[in-house]
Amino acid sequence: MSERIYIFDTTLRDGEQVPGSQLTTEEKITIAKELEILGVDIIEAGFPVSSPGDFRSVIEISKAIREPIICALSRAKKEDIDAAGQALKYARLGRIHTGIGASDIHIRNKFNSTRELILEQAVAAVKHAKTYVEDVEFYAEDAGRADLQYLAQLTQAVIAAGATVVNIPDTTGYCLPDEYGQKIKYIYENVSNVHKATISIHCHNDLGLATANTLAGVMNGARQVEVTMNGIGERAGNTSLEEVVMAIRLHKELGLETTINAKRLFPVSQLVSKMMRMPVQANKAIVGRNAFAHSSGIHQDGFLKHSENYEIMNPHDVGVDKSSIVLTARSGRHALKHRLENLGYSFDKSELDTLYHSFLAVADIKKEINDGDLVDLVKAAA
Ligand code: KIV
Ligand code: ZN
């Protein structure tokens, strides 16, 4: 039996912090409904105290969504928690996500405080959030750079105060996978009440390690992952939902599962990209334009012999129509023959050889050869 990993989607909160990607309440509801169909467990709908618009969005998303838990962010401040609690009043299942900086860097430079005072503020915040909802998640901001013993002490204290989930964020994307995994392991081994809460992973991608760190976290016992579609988010972004879901799905030996309907990954990625005005980079894993495109001769030949030679998943499984064979000056005869056959042409070996040489001459100039170019080449050779 596989163990369940809970998918906490923060596209509408951390993802929406990207400059230029702000959404209207109506747009947020559209995305939230798609996330519900996708099968996420928790939707972080916004940061209600931050603006009247975000407050309204959390209310409207709470009314529109039935299955996932609706989560609202707050700092460890009474007015933030009050706003989050009020915004969640229509949620069938509501969660307040409250927290404070846990690293000495944050404690000194951001709060001009001490570890002891921060711990007291954290406990008070969790207790206050509990007056609104049963389900309270605590985030130990900048846990990636926090002292490990203090992190364990803080985790112990907030769980004792009633936190149901404790989030250990690598806020600055600093950790290496092994280091981050060891942090999670340390928490499991040194927090005596840890079994009363779920440990959550929230990684940023400043070193391009967010997905690797998230997987290291779950391999060391965490059971919730905080992710965004297309990996959007502050600075270099958050862990990408589609990458973690497919890594878990492909690596059965991990013994983990999610409830994500993977066939919805590509359509939801496209919707988020369009609505948030954030193009998906062509080589983005799973959902990028080139994720299932083969362009070099060696790869094309191998792929055409058997797709498993160069694909670790079927594009249909993630909602992509089909793999593509892109014709460039690096392509070989096998790919050219394949594309010509798709257009209804068939040639013997010597005809194909001739055509291939004219194809290369055009491809060197034109970079990518489309169906129209192929038809022109065939006509010119006739
Ligand atoms: O990166 C972070 O630490 C956050 C918290 C607010 C959870 O986004
Ligand atoms: Zn974050």
Q: Could you give a short account of the major beta sheet?
A: 8 strands, parallel, barrel
Low-pLDDT stretches = none
Tell me the number of helical segments per DSSP (H or I, 4 or more residues long): 14
The value of Rg in angstroms is 25 Å
Number of beta strands: 12
CATH fold field value of the largest domain: TIM Barrel
What are the distinct ligands in this entry?
3-methyl-2-oxobutanoic acid, zinc ion
The overall average pLDDT, rounded, is: 97
Span between termini? 62 Å
Beta percentage is 5-15%
Counting helices, strands and paired strands, the structural category is: alpha/beta
CATH superfamily descriptor of the largest domain: Aldolase class I
Shape: elongated
SSE sequence, one letter per element? EEHEHEHEHHEHEHEHEHEHEHEHHH
